[in-house]
Amino acid sequence: MSKPTSSHAYGIGIITVIVGISAGLAYYQMFYLPESLAKPSVSEEILEPLEEKLIEIILNSADPNQQDNFVPKLVNIQLGIDNKIIWKNVDNTAHTVTPDQPTEDPYSGEFGSHGVIKPGDTYEFLFTEPNVVPYHCEPHPWMKGTLEITKQRF
């Protein structure tokens, strides 16, 4: 005849599992998650630059025969001076700002317009680290531009 198992031991096992899961969730929410979501420390002068740099998507940019589309095409940017970039679509066609290679700024996140920039709309991005970023318009790949972000020169 087999000996019956103790329901008392079974209850202690359940409580132990619940306490372990609770401790794991508490650690995850209080320590791991905030640390992983924290943005890096960036100086105020970089977060609030002196100027904004405007890039216009000019009229008829969707025409592959037109040489100018992102104006200016090559933009030199200095952190703390003009590292907030605004693309304004003055064309009558929707466009995108899409990096040639996936690009992520540690403070601002993933670079690139998410979806199209409709006529009259803008897309803004704040760069906080030096980088060279070639970009294009997804539906009109002949539209190209380059951003050269550098540290402030003294």
Question: Describe it for me?
Answer:
- With 154 residues, the chain is of the alpha+beta class.
- It has 2 domains: 1-38; 44-150, Sandwich (Immunoglobulin-like).
- It has 2 helices and 10 strands.
- It has helices at residues 7-37, 44-47, and strands at residues 52-57, 70-71, 74-78, 84-89, 98-99, 104-105, 109-110, 122-126, 131-136, 144-150.
- The strands form 3 sheets. Strands 2-1-4-8 form a 4-stranded mixed sheet, with no helix packed on it.
- A hairpin with a 7-residue loop joins strand 9 (131-136) and strand 10 (144-150).
- The termini are far apart.
Question: What is the fold's blueprint, element by element?
Answer:
Blueprint: H1 7-37, H2 44-47, E1 52-57, E2 70-71, E3 74-78, E4 84-89, E5 98-99, E6 104-105, E7 109-110, E8 122-126, E9 131-136, E10 144-150
Parallel strand pairs: 1-4, 3-10
Antiparallel strand pairs: 1-2, 4-8, 5-9, 6-7, 9-10
Strand order of the largest sheet: 2-1-4-8
Which CATH class of the largest domain applies here? Answer: Mainly Beta
Mean of residue pLDDT values? 89
CATH topology label of the largest domain: Immunoglobulin-like
Please give the count of helices: 2
**Total domains, how many?**
2
How would the global form be characterised?
elongated
Quickly give the structural class.
alpha+beta
Low-confidence stretches: none
- Indicate the percent of residues in helices: 10-25%
- Following the backbone from N to C, one meets helices and strands in this order, namely HHEEEEEEEEEE
**Can you count the beta strands?**
10
Main beta sheet = 4 strands, mixed
Would you identify the CATH H-level superfamily of the largest domain? Cupredoxins -  blue copper proteins
Strand content: 25-35%
Distance between the termini: 90 Å
CATH architecture of the largest domain: Sandwich
> Mind telling me the C-alpha Rg?
26 Å
